[in-house]
Amino acid sequence: MKSYWVVFVDVNDPEAYKAYQAANAAPISKYGGRFLVRGMGHKTVEGKSRSRLVVVEFPSAEAASDCYNSPEYTSAKAVREGLSIADFVVAQGYEGPQPANAA
Length: 103
Fold this sequence. Notes:
Number of strands: 4
Number of helices: 3
Strand order of the largest sheet: 2-3-1-4
Radius of gyration: 15 Å
CATH class: Alpha Beta
Strand content: 25-35%
């Protein structure tokens, strides 16, 4: 079952943050991740949010967790620290029944 990184981020130094974006590319690729949402372009319609929203899809919960805990991502995360504030969730996908169409 697919899993996702769902991350809300406020970036303090956009120029320096580019180093984190470059550093996270290798581990995300290594573990089969792909960006579904990256950065701007979201609207908070309820509750609180941050200025950036990122959603990365992984082929499995194991791949999502392994990537986050990998030495490569740990190094990338060290670059991000101090440049941003993030709320970071690893969420398992859902493949169960969906609501019936009322039409």
